[in-house]
Amino acid sequence: MAIRILSVDDEQDLEVLLTHYFRRKIRKGEYEFTFAHNGLEALKLMVEQPNFDIILSDINMPEMDGLTLLSKINELRNPAQKCIMVSAYGDMKNIRTAMNRGAFDFATKPIDMDDLSVTIEKAIEQIEFVKKTQQEHFQLQSLQSDLATAGEIQKAILPCKFPPFKELASVLDIYASMTPAKEIGGDFYDFFRINEDKIGFVIADVSGKGIPAALFMAVSNTLLRSVAMATETTNECMDEVNRLLCKASVNSMFVTMFYGILNHKTGDIDFTNAGHNPAYILHEDGTVEKVKQFPNFVAGGIEGFVYKNNTTHLNPGEAIVLYTDGVTEAFNEKDEPFGEERLEDSLAELYYEDAKTIIEEVHNDLGEFIGDTTQSDDITMLVIKRKKN
Asked: What are the 4-aspartylphosphate sites (modified residues) in this protein (predicted)?
């Protein structure tokens, strides 16, 4: 696009001089000149055509001088617009005033057109840099807006109403939370009714960060929930989810996943751990049991991998605690991880609490541990507790 230059000068000869000297650039469409003869006329043109790149203004003019015009231009606060002031050679006081008020450069009369050409080219370099910076800023703002929207959508995907199953509120206490390290995260949790006796529950952590991880998280969650309704056991479900994710995976993305089926009447749990952190069971006597499991591979990593399931049991009054590595790998100012031992110590003091309190208290312990250290990973927890009759 042509560089638009507004020349403001009460001398008609300058118009002829500029159009003749820059005739080739004008003919090629590189420069486009508009002429005004005083500051008031220039301001009117700037209102009608607000996209001038360079203002080439004389200082001494009738009706409104160049310094006043410069002050008016400054009020527009357009960093991509550059002012080049023109005055008599000996008029250094006004020239210095113009520079102090933000003029880009100046030229003296009689104008050396070669020197003015260099000055205009320097101004164009600055203008292009500012416009590029502005464009990048607008793109960043747009991205931030998109990320904020994506974060809200992601929150809407995750269950957020507790208790989730009102008809089971007398026998099950369920609570979960996900705190992303950035606007959006790669962790997710979910729980859903499979039949009258059983509920499915899952917690997972997608590899990578940002939008790709969030998209893969949504795909993984959707696939698991749909496949879970068509399979009997958790390992059969994971076999199929893994097969589908391997086909959908881009840039070798994968997900660690703990999927379980709880019979809320008997307390029996069938679960398959696909490369995820181990679960804990909080017993009524305050002991914390790390649930034993087969070392299955992550989902979406190896097509055809055959998953093995495990079983455990949840007595009335006991809780199963699931979490992502954002908990155990939260670092403090000494670069020490929170770790499994500290998590187990926290849980041991919470065996009698409800599901929500267990999660909130672990978060409090994490906050005290990491202090002012920036959260580096998503922190997600899911707790299911069988209630006593």
From this structure: 58
